[in-house]
Write a structure and sequence with these properties.
By secondary structure, the chain is an alpha/beta fold. It is built from 14 helices and 18 strands. The chain has 2 domains: about 240 residues, no CATH class; about 80 residues, no CATH class. It starts with a helix and ends in a 33-residue tail after the last helix.
């Protein structure tokens, strides 16, 4: 972690972030929309919470049809797998009826599901300091040789809001002012200045819609028709952004000397994981660090992949898989005071009967770790802290690092 902190602060390496649906859940808000530390509601629910919220908000007929469709689904049932099945039926059955609906009925049902998804993820980033604003601060606070690239399957606009508030320029594949259009040719190039962040919305986004033979960004949060692209036919994919965005992920990981940090990503998305595995097999010099929120035993999808691909390292709450080998955390003695200060940014020491924990599986803790890479000196937790966990009181006498690239 000390080495990682140095890499992140220098701006020389090609670095990417894969931010999954679990990231916004690290922001808890109260009824007034203010950030709270405990007993709050996630700003955006995770996939399980999103599935429950969307289904509960549908009409009774849609709920009954979903219950009839569930036995036909395999694996983890989420709102995305439900939406995929609904869209497949809308394309396949024509005038025939399945569970009481024909193709037009399922097409209308898919639109209702997308609208409900849009309502759930249509949130505004809180004004006060939050994990997304700290990521934006880290991005804009260092001169770089290569742009930071952010890949996300999330539909919300939280990353966009954070970057714009920080006045950090970014490119998301769209060009223009009145109705920005998607330009696949620009996605595949690296002609923008390194200070421009690249933001790739792998599963679409609020505000995207089809206009003629292209995709445009409307600026309206009510545009939800391009949420989750799995239903699109291959002939449509040639004029849609998704093939270009997935190809960008593959190109990034097969470039020399790249590092991808994953947070809030469950590794249950077959499409994304297929690209990750293919790229890791093709480029042994790329590295992926997966920071997982749960214990190692609960992260079966990513740990099985990490055992087969040694350039994927998994960092979980109680242990890790590094170079294909499982292990439990066993902190050693700090080499010096500076090393001990760094350790408190990613480790919660053992307290009474509770074992120590690795913290960076929490997106909020990882965002703070990224922000602190620009600090020259870190303080230890206050002596009055009962468990040694780090919070805002950890930082003392900080000053920016003078960096030369």
């Amino acid at each position: 972690m000390a080495d990682l902190r140095q890499i992140l602060s220098q701006g020389r390496k090609r670095i990417g972030l894969l931010i999954g649906a679990g990231a916004p859940t690290s922001i808890l808000i109260d009824g007034a929309g203010s950030i709270v530390k405990d007993c709050g509601t996630p700003l955006v629910p995770d996939v399980t919470g999103l599935t429950k919220a969307v289904v509960n908000d549908l009409n009774e007929r849609d709920k009954k049809i979903i219950e009839l469709l569930k036995p036909e689904l395999t694996g983890l049932i989420t709102i995305e797998t439900i939406l995929t099945q609904v869209r497949k039926l809308s394309q396949a059955i024509g005038s025939a009826f399945v569970h009481g609906l024909d193709a037009h009925g399922y097409d209308a049902m898919a639109q209702r599901i997308c609208e409900k998804i849009g309502e759930c993820v249509d949130v505004t980033l809180p004004q006060n300091t939050n994990p997304f604003s700290e990521v934006a601060s880290w991005i804009s606070g260092t001169r770089r040789l290569h742009s930071i690239e952010i890949f996300t399957p999330n539909y919300d606009l939280l990353i966009e809001e954070a970057l714009e508030r920080a006045r950090a320029p970014y490119f998301d594949g769209f060009s223009g002012s009145y109705r920005p259009f998607f330009d696949a040719a620009s996605v595949s190039t690296d002609v923008l200045p390194p200070r421009w962040t690249r933001l790739w919305k792998l599963h679409g986004s609020l505000g995207w819609e089809i206009s003629g033979d292209t995709v445009v960004r409307t600026g309206s949060r009510q545009a939800t028709q391009l949420i989750y692209p799995d239903h699109l036919k291959y002939d449509q994919m040639t004029r849609q952004p998704y093939s270009a965005l997935f190809e960008r992920l593959r190109s990034f990981l097969t470039s020399p000397d790249t590092l991808l940090l994953c947070s809030g990503f469950s590794f249950l998305d077959a499409h994304i994981c297929a690209v990750l595995e293919e790229a890791m097999a093709a480029n042994a010099h790329s590295a992926i660090f997966a920071f997982q929120f749960n214990s190692l035993a609960k992260e079966k999808a990513v740990t099985s992949l990490a055992r087969a691909r040694p350039n994927l390292s998994v960092y979980a709450r109680d242990g890790a898989v590094i170079s294909g080998v499982d292990g439990r955390w066993e902190p050693g003695q700090p080499l010096n005071e500076e090393w001990e200060q760094i350790r408190h940014t990613f480790w919660k020491p053992r307290f009474e009967s509770r074992d120590g924990e690795f913290l960076l599986g929490d997106f909020a803790k990882l965002a703070r770790f990224l922000a602190l890479t620009q600090m020259q000196r870190l303080g230890l937790p206050n002596e009055g802290s009962d468990d040694g966990s780090n919070d805002e009181s950890v930082i003392e006498h900080v000053s920016p690092i003078n960096q030369e690239v």
